[in-house]
Design brief:
four-stranded antiparallel beta sheet; four-stranded mixed beta sheet; 13 helices; 11 strands; 17% strand; binds zinc ion
């Protein structure tokens, strides 16, 4: 732990730094993940941590006053002394002064070794020679893991209803085919599809669809998929894929899979790795990928159907339509 107090034993006979970290550890069972200064950097690298596990990361935030009041430090120090000594500690991540808030939080899996270096390598490859991703050792490991997962995944019928939104302005009718795979001549690059290769994105609930569509007034189709589908489920990896859950969770929590994409231009480097995963999944025989939503907090998820033989016309029943405007939803 970096510290530069210059404080003498007479001024601080109890060793403030040691007691401070002892209380962090015993209260939160975690190290500090970030402070106010490095909060944005943490979430840029681990965007899914913001909403995952019932907002465990957000709930871990604590300000220094509350920490003092709830900790055993108040037995040894007045709040004035606490404020003085705490300013002499440094954030273990960015070395800034600890002044306002800290986030004692540990990602709920073992991060792949040297992941900071790996993510940089992938970013460089994505920006220069993206078709050569498979030459990268980590990308090859992901490819092999997905082939492995395909061997242990059986096709299943999705029990829940799924939801597919379309902007009102782009709809010609309310027939089911309007909500189906889009025609390839209008398909832009998406998180899990190349330009010109149709994929069908559906959500676990109407709200997720609405937020994925950037809150555009829309019609949402509630559908029941009746065919068996082989799904690469990246939302519940401990249960489905215990042998690869650390690798998959590192991907899902990181910017490689869960970065938000806000621009609408052609240059979308953040979609490179997800499109790579999609190619691996298709080549391994998966029909679809289930993944957490980056737009809506909570347990919501999206499914992207990659296999165009599963068009809604042949695989699904339309249950009902919802008219969604300003976040209000009404059945049509
Ligand atoms: Zn920091």
């Amino acid at each position: 732990m970096t510290v530069n107090t210059g404080t003498t034993e007479d001024e601080d006979p109890y060793w403030f730094e040691k007691l401070f970290y002892r209380d962090i550890e015993s209260w939160f069972s975690s190290d500090i993940a970030c402070c106010d200064k490095c909060y944005d950097d943490f979430l840029e690298n681990w965007p899914h941590a913001y909403a995952a596990d019932k907002q465990a990361f957000q709930r871990s935030s604590i300000d220094m006053h509350s920490f003092y009041s709830g900790s055993r430090l108040q037995k040894y120090y007045t709040e004035e002394q606490f404020n003085k000594f705490v300013r002499e500690l440094r954030c273990p991540i960015c070395v800034a002064e600890l002044s306002e808030n800290i986030w004692p939080y540990t990602l709920p899996f073992d991060v792949v070794d040297d992941f900071e270096y790996i993510i940089e390598e992938i970013a460089n490859l994505s920006n220069t020679t993206s078709f050569l991703l498979l030459n990268n050792k980590f990308a090859k490991q992901v490819h092999d893991a997905i082939i492995d997962l395909s061997n242990e995944t059986v096709p299943m019928v999705i029990e829940n209803y799924l939801y597919r939104a379309r902007a009102k302005s782009s709809l010609y009718s309310h027939e089911l085919h309007e909500f189906d795979f889009p025609p390839k001549n209008i398909v832009k690059e998406g998180r899990y599809n190349h330009a010109g290769i149709p994929a069908l994105y559906v959500g676990s609930d109407p709200d997720t669809c609405f937020y994925e569509l950037r809150e555009t007034p829309c019609i949402i189709a509630e559908v029941k998929v009746t065919k068996y589908i082989k799904i690469l489920d990246l939302t519940n990896t401990y249960e489905h894929y215990p042998n690869h859950s650390d690798l998959l969770n590192t991907l899902v929590y990181s910017a490689l899979m869960s970065a938000r994409q806000d621009d609408t231009g052609w240059y979308k480097p953040r979609y490179i790795f997800t499109r790579f995963i999609s190619d691996c999944a298709k080549s391994a025989g998966f029909d679809a990928i289930q993944y957490p939503s980056t737009r809506k907090n909570g347990e919501n998820y999206n499914i992207v159907l990659l296999n165009q033989d599963l068009s809604l016309d042949v695989s699904s029943k339309l249950i009902k339509l919802l008219d969604c405007d300003d976040g209000k939803m009404e059945e049509i």
